[in-house]
Amino acid sequence: MNPFAQESGIAPEGHPIHTLMEEHRAFLERANRLIAAAQALKAKPEAAAASAELEQARAVVADLKAGQSHYLREENVIFPLLDKHGFSGPPTVMWAEHDQVRAVEKTLFQVMEAAATMAWFDFTAQLDRAAQQLAQLLTTHFYKENNILFPTAMELLSPQEWDEVQREFDRLGYTPFTPGREKAAPAAGAEPAGESAAGEITLPTGTLPREVLAALLNTLPVEITFVDHEDRLRYFSQPRDMIFTRSTAALGTKVQNCHPAKSLHLVNQILADFRAGARDVAEFHIHMQGKYVYIRYFAVRDPQGKYLGCMEVTQDIAPIQQIEGEKRLL
């Protein structure tokens, strides 16, 4: 199966779709390099005789770890915009396949990290198996995206939407091996496109200029996301160090289409309980990328108890857990 068999002319160079497809090429090239390195390692009697091959494998794994923005850009920008056009089934499948790729990569990363402590035969066998699985998954997945998802996106999205996609891609950042955008990093504190409206926001306890309110919300040491009573994403804050990836392209879409299929049952249960008045808070805490992430969901109601929506508040509480004693001075 050749993922690029029918790609001719689908998108011009520099277009977001062209960028994604070039990243597909780079991913597959690295997956094949990893298979070659694993095969070479299996032919060596021990680690001491395979330093060059081990270094090649480590280099590929480092690239795979640094390539996660590829999937995040698709999930947070392309998929929500396709959903707005009523094309939601295939993106849901693609997101589920992303999770399959992540699961294989997780196994692969764990095998590489345990190389020094595993029996040589076990290490090389597991590395080869994970590399083969990854290459097979990527080949079939990229074929579907290149030949079904991306051509549909080119037909459905307007020039204005593609401009938005490009802005969001630039904000979220690229992989170290994205052609023409090597080592591009996410833009810190980027603002959504469009001019801010003039005027002030009057609240029961005070009045704030619109830009001050936005800055205040972005300064809070938590991430805030709001989903309205119809389960549509309406707002998210942009603190300096965001834990979860968000994109303005997802605004207005159903929150169910902003989550992978494996977590939909939890999302729907929380929202159903909030809407029915069965609960007002749901809490989770997970270890993720060196952080201890505390995630809380709150039912938002008006003074009469009418359900207005759901607010998600996310925070890394690892630094807070380390606080001891008292601090009374600067």
Detail the topology: elements first, then pairings.
Blueprint (H helix, E strand, L loop, with lengths): L15 H27 L8 H16 L2 H16 L4 H25 L6 H37 L2 H14 L27 E4 L2 E4 H10 L3 E6 L4 E4 L27 H13 L4 E8 L2 E11 L5 E10 L1 H4 L9
Antiparallel strand pairs: 1-2, 3-4, 3-7, 5-6, 6-7
Helix pairs in contact: 1-2, 1-5, 2-4, 3-4, 3-6, 4-5
Keywords:
single chain; 330 residues; alpha+beta; Four Helix Bundle (Hemerythrin (Met), subunit A); Beta-Lactamase; 2 domains; five-stranded antiparallel β-sheet; two-stranded antiparallel ribbon; 7 strands; globular
The CATH architecture of the largest domain would be: Up-down Bundle
Number of individual domains? 2
- Give the number of helices: 9
Main sheet attributes: strand count, strand direction, barrel closure:
5 strands, antiparallel
Write the element-wise H/E pattern from the N-terminal end onward. HHHHHHEEHEEHEEEH
Strand order of the largest sheet: 4-3-7-6-5
Q: pLDDT average, as an integer?
A: 90
Total DSSP E strands: 7
Cα distance spanning the termini: 63 Å
Helix proportion of residues, in percent? 40-55%
User: Which residue ranges are poorly predicted, with pLDDT under 50 across at least 5 consecutive positions?
Assistant: 188-197
Q: What's the overall geometry?
A: globular
Within the CATH hierarchy, at the fold level, what is the topology of the largest domain? Four Helix Bundle (Hemerythrin (Met), subunit A)
